[in-house]
């Protein structure tokens, strides 16, 4: 029997890599989609390529869409990436690393590719527990996008419903580490940092790094990547 197809948004980070592994475990033929969108942490694209190869996805596409034309984010403009935010404050406000409409844009491309492939499923590694407070990672956004997708596409109009899967949405970072390890994700290949140094190592101080390191610490596991600085819970 032919496996059902799924488009997986693959950034190269630990969450998207784990979401891709979940899709594969559930029997989907995975088509991975990444974006070169003008992000300062473009090292994640090399990570996405390595993760896609290791997982054995059917096809991996990298699209170019330059969101630097709009700016408005520390990832696509001249704003500073927040550093050393106390863990208890992460997620209490929308940080400067929020990229306006990023998940809406990414999911829209995934929706178009899924319809072309005849796929009814999209996987997104969104997380709404240990996260930086991005509004487009919330369950209500995902539900609203899925409703819109089924109104906007020929497939939806003809009754072939599109489903947006967020298998990590209610998991802590520690639980994501545990799930990924169980599924054979090689976290040494993944990239999380928003502001890598000239030597290519992760900064260890941005919110993405801090949450990653907390996840490995809470899971009782060693984070396999190297950092520029020594922060509690990492190397």
Provide structural commentary.
The protein is α/β, with parallel strands linked by helices. It has a single domain (5-194), classed as HUPs (Rossmann fold). Helix content is 35%, strand content 11%. It has 7 helices and 5 strands; from the N terminus they run βαβαβαβααβαα. The chain has helices spanning 14-25, 43-55, 102-117, 139-152, 154-157, 173-182, 207-219; strands at 5-9, 29-36, 59-64, 121-123, 163-165. It has a 5-stranded parallel sheet with strand order 3-2-1-4-5, with helices on both faces. β1, α1 (14-25) and β2 (29-36) form a beta-alpha-beta unit. α1 (14-25) runs parallel beside α2, α1 (14-25) crosses α6 and α6 (173-182) crosses α7. The chain is globular, with a radius of gyration of 17 Å. The protein starts with a strand and ends in a 16-residue tail after the last helix. Mean pLDDT is 94; it is low at 231-235.
